[in-house]
Amino acid sequence: MNPRSPVQDAVSAGGVVWRRGRDGLIEVVICGRNDDSLWCLPKGTPDADETIEQTAIREVEEETGLHVRPGAKLGTITYWFVANGVRFHKRVHHWLMEPVGGNLSDHDHEFDRVEWVPISVAHELLKYENERRMVRKAAEALGAEIP
Questions:
Q1: pLDDT tens-digit readout, 83-122
Q2: Most C-beta atoms within 10 A of its C-beta, which of 9, 59, 109, 143?
Q3: How many domains does the chain have?
Q4: Is the dihedral of CA 111, 123, 41, 20 positive or negative?
């Protein structure tokens, strides 16, 4: 990475969607792709004139097929990446969210699979440590334990 490369800020938003499963354990939604075995949290970039929270709701609804209600803000992930000779400083804002309708089968084309899994399983499957940290924060907020 060339330290003289131009720097741009980038932002996206999403959430940790949760419910209490039949066994009483907390479950969360994760999104996956078959070609690279990637599992991640739903998130995306803002449309024009959209607040970050509105972005989080819209992106989660598009990527999961669920209608959601945002709760507490969990935090923000920050990281750097390079694309086309530009260094990006990315910030991803996450909210705790509850489903209020919809169906996972209605998720958009971006992911091959969208699934409810126990929160501890999500923590194991998520590819990125920053997203695992958001799941740990969700677990703490919900009084759940991740072994």
A1: 988 999 999 999 999 999 999 999 999 999 999 999 999 9
A2: 59
A3: 1
A4: positive
